[in-house]
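Hi V.,

Quick status before I head out on leave. The structure for the redesign project is tokenized and pasted below; the design run finished overnight.
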């Protein structure tokens, strides 16, 4: 009977020791997994925000280009050449470059409008091209 009692007591002690908590190794592995997941989520959120800002810039620049094209159409056939100026839209300054080129058809010009952020004039955000005629 004494042997059974000792075995039962040893198995009870081992069970209690197992139920105490996690080992340091288990905690470190869990922290590593959670850190990796947090990094992935952070990178994804950063890329999403960056894409959203880029799409906003392209949309605004396209609206600026369309407005300039509408102005040119309202004023009739524009003269050949290149013209650059600035405008403001949505609280931002935009650099607009309008190029008017002659085509092989009489009284018809090709109009290309390039829009860039005024703070970064070398990076064209949107381009719009059209053919305009006299009639």
């Amino acid at each position: 009977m004494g042997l059974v009692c000792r075995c039962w007591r040893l198995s009870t002690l081992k069970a209690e020791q197992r139920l105490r908590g996690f080992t340091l190794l288990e905690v470190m592995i869990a922290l590593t997994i959670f850190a990796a997941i947090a990094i992935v989520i952070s990178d994804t959120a950063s890329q999403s925000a960056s894409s959203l800002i880029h799409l906003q810039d392209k949309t605004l620049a396209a609206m600026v280009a369309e407005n300039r094209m509408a102005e040119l159409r309202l004023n009739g056939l524009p003269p050949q050449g290149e013209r650059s100026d600035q405008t403001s839209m949505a609280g931002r300054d935009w650099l607009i470059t309008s190029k008017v080129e002659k085509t092989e058809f009489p009284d018809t010009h090709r109009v290309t409008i390039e829009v860039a952020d005024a703070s970064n004039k070398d990076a064209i955000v949107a381009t719009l091209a059209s053919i305009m005629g006299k009639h």
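Above is the designed sequence. The chain has a mean pLDDT of 86.

G. will cover questions while I'm gone.

Best,
W.
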